């Protein structure tokens, strides 16, 4: 096994291990980033932030710039299609206290790519390079780029984009081993990530299908990447970070969390969401998190149905506490 859990650097930023929480919309808000960091994510990444939202001082977008002292180091991801506005957005993000700026060049969502943003930039490499260069020149903190392998199987643009990112001053690149057309279907192509590793001298972070210690080790072994990024495997599952680190350090496979541990963490997460976003938003957003926390548990479908029907935070919290008490006695 080539993987280790030793410290890893992105530019001047030291990470305690090469294990990173991916930027995920609807998942990586401040409360969950704090949780993931506490469990062992050496770097946490924010949900993607719109350059135009920052430029026009959109209230929701500005709120996404909030960083808790205990979540550092934190990478803030921005997206856009114009070098000038992306540079301004990057300066705002640095001022907000981010340790690293990540540029999204992999989002497959239609409303993003229709504007020439996200994965659409893999079809416009000159513009992509200009954006990276403008962002790097606008800030003093490290800049990274997250991409897919390409738009489709025929367009394997990642090695060339990675080379351009390196030339433009990026400190590292992350490659999700799927095409834009795949979205999240099929399997991540580790051979294509390996090709990107061979193409550049800056660190490459491997992303895709990492669900436990062995799959993390496979990503390292088969690609030669210098770090790994965990996406969907971390949804409702912060335990994945200590599991991966233990496996990389000693080959140890940790036991999965007990139902009681899951309910306890779910309750803490809900309380943090309420404190951060208020009752109305917390109740609605926690339904998705609850589905992930309870996945695979006995009677999980019925549990989810009861939680989804809860019309107040008091009822929702009472349900979680009842489930927790049942497991503890």
TrEMBL record:
> Any idea what job this protein has?
Catalyzes the synthesis of 5,6-dihydrouridine (D), a modified base found in the D-loop of most tRNAs, via the reduction of the C5-C6 double bond in target uridines.
* Listed name of the protein: tRNA-dihydrouridine synthase
Gene that this polypeptide is encoded by: dusB
**Keywords from the UniProt entry:** Flavoprotein, FMN, NADP, Oxidoreductase, RNA-binding, tRNA processing, tRNA-binding
Could you say which enzyme class this protein belongs to? oxidoreductase
Q: Which PROSITE patterns match?
A: UPF0034
The domain of life for this entry's organism is Bacteria
Name the cofactor(s) required for activity, per the record: FMN
User: Residues in domain DUS-like FMN-binding?
Assistant: 20-318
* Catalysed reactions, as listed in the record: a 5,6-dihydrouridine in tRNA + NADP(+) = a uridine in tRNA + NADPH + H(+); a 5,6-dihydrouridine in tRNA + NAD(+) = a uridine in tRNA + NADH + H(+)
| Annotated source species | Megasphaera hexanoica
Query: What family does this chain come from, according to its entry?
Result: Belongs to the dus family.
So what EC number does this one have? 1.3.1.-
The record ties this protein, via Pfam families, to: Dus
State the Gene Ontology terms under molecular function.
Answer: oxidoreductase activity
Q: Which CDD domains match?
A: DUS_like_FMN (cd02801)
Say if the entry is tagged with keyword Oxidoreductase.
yes
């Amino acid at each position: 096994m080539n993987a280790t859990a030793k410290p890893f650097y992105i530019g001047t930023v030291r990470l305690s291990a090469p294990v990173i929480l991916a930027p995920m919309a609807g998942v990586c808000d401040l409360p969950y980033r704090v949780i993931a960091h506490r469990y062992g994510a050496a770097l946490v990444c924010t949900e993607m932030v719109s350059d135009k939202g920052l430029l026009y001082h959109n209230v929701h977008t500005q709120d996404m710039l909030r960083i808790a002292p205990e979540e550092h180091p934190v990478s803030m991801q921005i997206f856009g299609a114009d070098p000038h506005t992306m540079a301004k957005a990057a300066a705002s993000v640095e001022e907000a206290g981010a340790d690293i700026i990540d540029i999204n060049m992999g989002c497959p969502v239609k409303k993003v790519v229709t504007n020439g943003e996200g994965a659409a930039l893999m079809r416009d490499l000159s513009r992509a390079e200009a954006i990276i260069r403008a962002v790097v020149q606008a800030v003093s903190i490290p800049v990274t780029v997250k991409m897919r392998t390409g738009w489709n199987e025929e367009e394997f643009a990642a090695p060339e984009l990675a080379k351009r990112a390196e030339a433009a001053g990026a400190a590292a690149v992350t490659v999700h081993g799927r095409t834009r057309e795949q979205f999240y279907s099929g399997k991540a192509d580790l051979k294509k990530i390996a090709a990107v590793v061979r193409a550049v001298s800056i660190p490459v972070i491997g992303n895709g299908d990492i669900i436990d210690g062995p799959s993390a080790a496979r990503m390292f072994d088969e690609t030669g990447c210098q770090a790994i990024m965990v996406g969907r495997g971390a949804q409702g599952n912060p335990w994945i970070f200590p599991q991966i680190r233990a496996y990389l350090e000693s080959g140890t496979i940790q036991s999965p969390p007990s139902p009681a541990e899951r309910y306890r963490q779910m309750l803490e997460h809900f309380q943090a969401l309420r404190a951060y976003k208020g009752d109305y938003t917390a109740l609605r957003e926690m339904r998705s998190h609850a589905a992930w926390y309870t996945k695979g548990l006995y009677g999980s479908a019925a549990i989810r149905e009861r939680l989804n029907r809860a019309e107040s935070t008091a009822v929702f919290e009472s349900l979680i506490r009842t489930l927790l008490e049942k497991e503890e006695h």
